[in-house]
Amino acid sequence: MTEKTDNDHGNVPSRQRKRFPDISSRAYEHPADRSALVALRKLTGFDTVFKALSGLLPERSLRLLFLSDSVRVSDAQFSHLNDMLRDACYILDLEKVPPMYVTQDPKPNAMCIGLDEPIIVVTTGLVELLDEEEMRAVVGHEVGHALSGHSVYRTILLFLTSLAVKVAWIPLGNVAIMAIVTALREWFRKSELSADRAGLLVGQDLQASMRGLMKIAGGNHLHEMNVDAFLAQADEYEKGGDLRDSVLKIINVLPRTHPFTTVRAAELKKWSETRDYQRIMDGHYPRRTEDKDASVTDSFRESAGHYAESVRTSKDPLMKLVGDIAGGAGDLAGDLGGKLRSRFGGGAPRGDDGTGGAEKGDAGNEGGRDSGGRTEG
């Protein structure tokens, strides 16, 4: 990894794009991703622990492997990718430009890994599949991972997944590790949504981001595909079927590190239409210099609010059932609370026989509700 210099970010993009000096990754991170990262960054000694772990993880081996058996992007090799990489780092104001490698693999893929320093790897299948603007969004996606520090947890996830296979013969050993892996995968799926947003901030072309996701799902056949129809698939996937389908969706997504492609496209389009996105484009966003003051409590509250809103607005049959049950429980609690307040509340003194005061209290409460307006739980 090289230090940032004027030459590192010197190339001008093919069209003028907005730049975001000192932008914090909190600006584009998904609420569930952001709350986990803010909490981890607040842990005393967190960096020390993971640097100690680096001796156990195959990071050095991975670096040597890519150096010896892949092509390192530079001015001399894949220079157009090198320009995109430097542009992405310039736009997101990433202090150091990560090394980037192209590796021979027909499957379109990209990743950002590493504990001490992130490295970006893209496959030949991806390079051959995407056009310039689509690829720019992907490079921005990976730079977003680097800025958020996702590469650390991705490397750990790869290590633990490999370890789970090796200890499968130990009673309960695989179960314990897979429980951690499952939790990391759930977090990582949300981190992918964060990185998609970073890719949009770098490319600043929503249609290119949509096309790239569509190609990853259906190959290089744009003349046979349509963005609106592709997004309609996501809507059909979310609301279609019955409770059995909802359970199958959960089973299908559990082993994945990435959300389904149609879901990613729909989530990115939804975010591009929010006030948060527009504020970033207008230059109003959290700054990296303010990260130390970020509140863990506020981040968790926002994450909890996001999940609650997702359940409330979801069209999925299971999520609708959960929302109905939660709403019914709330109505029941409110109704029960109102009856208890009506029977025992009001603060009126009880009569000598133990009943007169309660009756007066009931009348007072009822009158208060009639004059003040009835409230529902």
Task: Give your account of this protein's structure.
With 377 residues, this protein is mostly helical. It has 16 helices and 6 strands. The chain has helices spanning 31-42, 46-53, 59-69, 79-91, 124-129, 132-148, 150-166, 173-203, 206-218, 227-239, 243-253, 261-272, 275-281, 296-313, 317-344, 356-372, and strands at residues 2-3, 71-72, 96-97, 100-103, 110-113, 119-123. A 4-stranded mixed β-sheet has the order 2-4-6-5, with helices on both faces. A hairpin with a 5-residue loop joins strand 5 (110-113) and strand 6 (119-123). Helix 1 (31-42) crosses helix 8. The longest helix is centred in the middle third of the chain and has 31 residues, at 173-203. The protein is globular and about 55 Å long. The N and C termini lie far apart (58 Å). Residues 1-13 and 347-377 have low confidence and may be disordered.
Portion in beta strands? 5-15%
Structural class: mainly alpha
Count of extended strands? 6
Give the overall silhouette. Answer: globular
Summed over residues and divided by their number, the pLDDT gives a mean of: 75
Which spans have pLDDT < 50 for at least 5 consecutive residues?
1-13, 347-377
Strand order of the largest sheet: 2-4-6-5
Largest sheet: 4 strands, mixed
Q: How far do the termini sit from each other? A: 58 Å
Radius of gyration: 26 Å
- Count of DSSP helices? 16
Give helix and strand order, one letter per element, not per position: EHHHEHEEEEHHHHHHHHHHHH
Report helical residue fraction: 55-70%
